[in-house]
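[scheduler] slot 2 assigned
[scheduler] job type: sequence-to-structure, two independent chains
[scheduler] chain ordering preserved from manifest
[runner] begin chain α
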Amino acid sequence: MKTTDKAAMRPLELWGGIECTVNRVGEEFFDQFDQSGHPSRLSDLDLVARLGIRTMRYPIVWERTYRDGAAEADWSYPDAAMKKLDELDIEPIVGLVHHGSGPRHTNLLDPEFPEKTAQYAAEVARRYPHLEKYTPVNEPLTTARFSALYGHWYPHATDGKAFMQALIYQCKAVALSMRAIREVNPLAELVQTEDMGRTYSTRKLAYQADFENERRWLSFDLLCGRVDRDHPMWGFLKHVGIDSREVMWFADNPCPPDILGINHYLTSERFLDERLDRYPAHTHGGNGRHQYADVEAVRVRAEGIGGPKQILKETWDRYGMPIAVTEAHLGCTRDEQMRWLVEVWDAAKTLRKQGADIRAVTVWSMFGAYDWCSLLTKWCGSYEAGVFEIREGKPRRTVLARLVQNLAQGCVPNYEFLRSPGWWARDDRLEYPPVSAPVALEAPRERAYAL
């Protein structure tokens, strides 16, 4: 599929985003905004506007608005933020649930989670009827994995059925939320995000890699109404006990995204190896059939990683729908952060020339992020700077800001150091004995309902 003439003429945009996760561990909520102090510094948005950014992923997070319950809903902060964004001529892409499970009266395994989320979405739409872009639930599949398969976040389930149920409820929440929003504003668009990577493996574990590489598309496939009895994941859904009527609901009520939001990190590409002695114990796991280590592919795969260009191409080839990179971030030194952002930008530009309808690249974590080193399971005080550094309480521009300003104007500065490869493309990236793992192995595939 090729871009339309209109899409081809539209320049690649640079969007911005603020890390806004509100997740729950046990009875404690981990709120990135509480950490960063941004709600008390709306002047932060003036700094963003000066960079030339005119579209921004911005939260009106359910858990914050309903912190003390629906009866005590506090709209003072989002009221001020939406007013400020409007004054600055920055269009928000509004996020409602960001790696969360909702306020205390619900969770990802609550059968009423979709309807409750949609009720909140309707409130937001009625309060701000001019808003046109929404992400009701950020990264549903990733959140389902962390909350209901690995048990890191609330409700801390660890089985296949809970994982799939959490994913289905989140995707249904997206569809019902967009239905409610469009009753207020029929022009509202869905920008649906998902962390998208690829899994590689040894020949023995090719079946598991195949499974994970198919599973990664489920959020988009469900919303597009593509999951039926002929879908590769149908057998797994039945195997773990999901009622087929819950799945077929999406075929009867499709809610295809207006823009597919791809979030891709260096850690998004994984490598699976049954030779446990090669890897530290904390990487060991399994699927009930084989034990194996799950490590970052960049640290072991001889061929390196496919990177953003491969992921974006795979997404375009599968869906042929408008795409935006909705998170581009690397927690590293300033020069490596700049190399990564330029690599993502160049990948988007290259694929646009080849006909892919890629609309934007989003500089994520404009003001940095806290405690992702623990996957937000405990307060560590670990901070990763973004375009601005905020540890001293007042945002300070980093060298990344100048690059962002250039990209917002459509050009890449000719810095000498940008001509050298990032650490992910150098030989010193390897931490383990290198293993060759082609994208397509020739070994026969085995059907296995793994996790």
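[runner] end chain α
[runner] begin chain β
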Amino acid sequence: MKRLIGWLMVVVLVAFSQDIRERFRAQSVKAEAAGLAEPFRGVTAKGAVEPGLFAVKSTGVSTEPVRKAAVAFLAGLTEEQRAKTKFPVDDPEWRKWMNQHFYIRQGVSFQEMNDKQRELGFGLLKVSLSADGLKLSRDIMKLNETLGELNNNNFTEYGEWRYHITVMGEPSKDKPWGWQIDGHHLIINYFVLGDQVVMTPTFVGSEPVIATMGKYKGTAILQEEPKMGLSLIRTFDDGQKKKAVLEVAKPANNNVGEAFKDNVVLDYAGLRGSEMTPAQKKALVTLVAKYVGNMDAGHAKVKMAEVEKHLENTWFAWIGGTQDDSVFYYRIHSPVILIEFDHQRPAGLRNLIKEQVPNKEHVHVVIRTPNGNDYGKDLLRQHYAMAKH
């Protein structure tokens, strides 16, 4: 009798899991169809791409460690795994990412990797990212395990290893290629052309942002970024605050550049860099560097030089309160970078939280390269144009 009951429970669980997978697949197909209906143009301020912002050139920072790590990772996969992990460099697969846990992802997941393959996968992240970037990525994965624990050990939808890697193009010293990691609260697109790197769109976050129980108790992410944003806006005088603060109330989510928003039109808003004091500009640069610094140090330095070139035309906008206990959204927006930090409504923990309003335990961060260079697409376009000649 016990054996029969056990068998019936397995049948029910398999049927339930199959139903979830089919529901997820339907949601994924619908989201992709809507999100990819338009050809890629890129994030713009007025609906038209500002030309001449990006150039194919040498940075002097080697990408050879990344290439070698990608080659080793692919070599460590089985033939079947490799076949579903590799895509052409100009494949729409770049744009097929989504934060939501239900999304049906491509590539090979850490869940199906053996220990050696996981080591090679993390090896690719290690040489592509800074130590801070690697730790952030790893801690997000751990906190997704915590989210599963908080949902009655629901590891059908959540879990540490539910993250997929894809490789676009052939890892090369001079031809364009790249890789992507895609999963709940962790998406990194890493495009490489020669010694140039574009690491956007990047999406990081978690719910919760601090594990107070479970396997990874004590793990915490994105603790300095909100403090730094608060510190900056508190230096503004009344006139500056009047421009920077778009709304005092924050009843909803405010990020605009998340999944399938590659062509979002977002006008500059808030306080412009040219209206800040030298000390405020320095604080703004430090805040941007906190996010950009998740990529390897050499390429982060290259990106920051690009950011500082447009500092006078960099805008800082704020929604929400400015007290220690406030929830808020802030945005840093220039022709060459868009950063959004957002306290979000409950999602994975909505059944455990009474108030369905933004809270500090659910954070989303999005980083993009406006004007057509997300996924390195403007560099890829220029590369193809030069190749024809």
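[runner] end chain β
[qc] chain β: The CA atoms of residues 103 and 239 lie 44 Å apart.
[scheduler] slot 2 released
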